């Protein structure tokens, strides 16, 4: 892994984190605190878009520090036909480029694969395309579109 300013904290703090399967009813406060910080405060997504009707039925993953402090989230939903949709992927800004996002997605894909799902789809913010490409996702032929005022592309990969 190359040393970048973004990743410097990982080296200084010898960052240790864990990925947990989470439950919306039990872990809502921790999941929402990360999503609120990243999407609402940092990216200015309107707060009313943040929590939706999929949250109670989605499978959630939570990344925490050793003391349990939440630092990252992701979720996936059953789209039917063996497909899943990945979303709400977020890592607190000060802890990015430490591998947290990659391990969240790897764990999520493994989880879905073990449950017999075949393909993962997601709406990638254009600024995150490289992150997802590194994890085996490819852009589809669909044109760029806006969601909550942010440009996105569709991406997918086989599980
Ligand atoms: C996208 C996001 C989840 C990545 O999380 P992360 O913990 O920083 O990801 P990782 O440390 O596992 O990054 C793995 C690799 O992805 C690539 N990558 C990650 N963020 C990148 C960025 N901003 N620009 C370019 N490449 C990036 C790098 O190749 C990186 O490896 P490296 O650090 O060894 O170069 C995080 O940047 C984030 O929360 N962004 C804001 C919310 C967001 O945009 N979510 C995605 C919605 S679709």
Question: In summary, what is this structure?
Answer:
The protein is 31% helix and 34% strand.
Please explain how this structure is put together.
The chain is α+β, with helices and mostly antiparallel strands. The protein has five helices and eight strands, in the order αβααβββαβαβββ. Strands 1, 2, 3, 4, 5, 6, 7 and 8 form an eight-stranded mixed sheet that branches. It is globular. It binds coenzyme A (COA). Coenzyme A binds next to β4, α4, β5 and α5.
At the fourth level of CATH, the homologous superfamily is Gcn5-related N-acetyltransferase (GNAT)
- Write the element-wise H/E pattern from the N-terminal end onward: HEHHEEEHEHEEE
Mean pLDDT: 93
- Report the sheet-strand fraction: 25-35%
Enter the CATH topology name.
Aminopeptidase
The first-to-last residue Cα distance is 25 Å
Largest sheet: 8 strands, mixed
Helix fraction? 25-40%
Oligomeric state of the chains present here? single chain
Structural class: alpha+beta
Looking at the overall shape, the CATH architecture is 3-Layer(aba) Sandwich
Overall domain count = 1
CATH first level: which class? Answer: Alpha Beta
> How many strands appear in the DSSP assignment?
8
Radius of gyration: 15 Å
Which stretches are low in confidence, meaning pLDDT under 50 for 5 or more residues running?
none
Bound molecules: coenzyme A
* Number of H/I helices: 5
